[in-house]
Amino acid sequence: MFKPLIFYIGLRYTRAKRRTQFISFVTLASVLGIALSVTALITVLSVMNGFVGKISERMLSMTSHATISGLYGQLDNWQALEQQLKTYPHVQGTAPFINGQVMINADRRVNGTVVSGILPEYETRVSEIADKMKMGKLSDLVAGEYGIVLGLEQANYLGVTVGDKITLISPQVNSTPAGVVPRMRRFTVVGIFQVGMYEYDRNMALIHMEDAAKLFRMENTVTALRIKMDDLLNAPQITLALAKSFAGNYSVSDWTMAHDNFFQAIKMEKKVMSIILLLMVAVSAFNIVSTLIMVVTDKRSDIAILKTQGLTSASVMGIFMVLGTVIGILGTILGVVCGVLLAINVPEIVSGIEKLFNVKFLNAQTYYISELPSELLWSDVWATAGMAFLLSLLATIYPAWQAAKINPAEVLRYE
Fold first, then answer.
1. How far, in Å, CA of 280 to CA of 113, rounded?
2. Torsional class of 270: left (φ above 0), alpha (ψ -120 to 50), beta (otherwise)
3. Chain segment 23-33, per-residue pLDDT in tens
4. What sign results for the dihedral spanned by CA atoms 354, 41, 10, 403?
5. Strands (E) located in 79-118
6. Dihedral sign, CA of 87, 88, 89, 90?
7. What are phi and psi of 115, to 5 degrees?
8. Which of 1, 71, 188, 309 has its CA 20 to 30 A from that of 364?
């Protein structure tokens, strides 16, 4: 079916004569349609991969791989549990913390936020917050001095910087002769961090764990222990093993549980976008059908003559399948090249457009991140190219089959 003659004739039909310029134009449009669809699919998948990667990286710079707490939201005698966790081979570090919600007041500005009481010397074992400091150092949090570290967005909103005083108002209350009043404590800003995620930079603050224990009345107890493991991707399996070894005495969760809804939504969105863009590839690929039908109509007399000279119907079918396959391959190769180049350079391209037109596509207050990342996965490239080629090949079957059915006697009767 696919002999050198078949390839020669099929490739010969890709070159237009003067009287078939329109067919050549439609062929070029089919190639460009496939190329644009493949380019769009590779670029969109790369951007979505970049979003997931960046958000995961920034989330995990502030979130531990796993968390272990008591069954009622508090953990007593965390030092003994920490020593026990050190014996597990996959555990690389632990850090206690106390979490609570407060209102921060600075002059006339008020903001609700989550305060995390930490031990600075322990926190560096499980998170990268010390590397995210823009002003001050994490070690500036000293017990009894009531220092606080704020996110950059929160500090800008409150209009404070290092050295300024702010007031933390706890939801817990004190009973006084004047009545019930909320617990308040003055803190000094000793540092400002920037993770790059608005959720953390705007709604999180850090204080020393001993100060947090006094503020929230949690003497000798902590909220939970953060755990850093040697393998982030195997955290769910390691967490399950830890939960079994503790026989239900503690509550153990990993980072995938903490953000499960978010990552599931991202995964579903990627699948839906892939299907939508793959339909674009299918529409472009099936433009080949119209192209080949016009070629078959134009070459009816050529087909009849070839058949009278001994060319079989299978060979005729092969000629037009070669023609359609060449169109699909050219479109796919062009789309892959353009898609890879665009996916690699999309952050710089978007940044240049933003500067040129003075616009901002991703508002940090709306989106998790403010820049457009991209991560090219070759598995996505090969899958996209394979599907585009397969759809192009399928699109050639019907026109080629119609060409093979041509009856030479009927075509040459009036020639």
1. 45
2. alpha
3. 677 778 888 98
4. negative
5. 91-106, 109-118
6. negative
7. -105, 130
8. 188
The whole-number pLDDT of residue 363 equals 64
For residue 68, the cross-strand partners are 225, 252
Burial of 67 (0-12, 13-18, 19+ CB in 10 A): buried
24 closest CA partner among 11, 32, 35, 15: 15
Q: Is the pLDDT of residue 1 over 50?
A: no
Region of 161 please: left (phi>0), alpha (psi -120 to 50) or beta: beta
Q: Classify residue 382 as exposed, middle or buried by CB count within 10 Å of its CB (0-12, 13-18, 19+).
A: exposed
Q: How many CB atoms lie within 10 A of CB 307?
A: 20
Is the predicted pLDDT of residue 162 greater than 90, yes or no? yes
Note the pLDDT of residue 240: 84
- In 3D, which of 68, 37, 101 has the Cα closest to residue 254? 68
Structure confidence at residue 77 (pLDDT): 83
Instruction: Enter the tokens of residue 59.
Output: 């989330």
Residue of 244, 242, 206 lying closest to 65 (CA atoms): 242
Q: Could you read off the pLDDT of 285-330 as tens digits, one per residue?
A: 778 888 888 888 877 888 888 888 878 888 888 888 888 888 889 9
Residue 398 buriedness (CB in 10 A; 0-12 / 13-18 / 19+): middle
Tokens of 411: 């075509």
Three-point CA angle 51, 54, 57, nearest 5°: 140
The DSSP symbol for 387 reads: H
Q: Which segment, 70-74, 98-102, 346-350, is predicted with the most confidence on average?
A: 98-102
Candidates 101, 114, 107, 109; CA nearest to 150 is 114
Strands (E), 119-244: 133-135, 147-151, 165-176, 179-193, 204-208, 221-222, 224-229
Question: What was the pLDDT predicted at 244?
Answer: 83
Q: Measure the CA–CA gap between 363 and 345, rounded to whole angstroms.
A: 21
Phi, psi dihedral angles at 107 (to 5 degrees): 55, -115
Dig out the tokens for 407 from the structure.
Answer: 């009856």
CA distances 72 to 76, 100, 280, Å, are 11, 15, 52
Calpha distance 73→68 (Å, rounded)? 10
**CB distance 129 to 151 below 8 Å:** no
pLDDT(342) > 90: yes
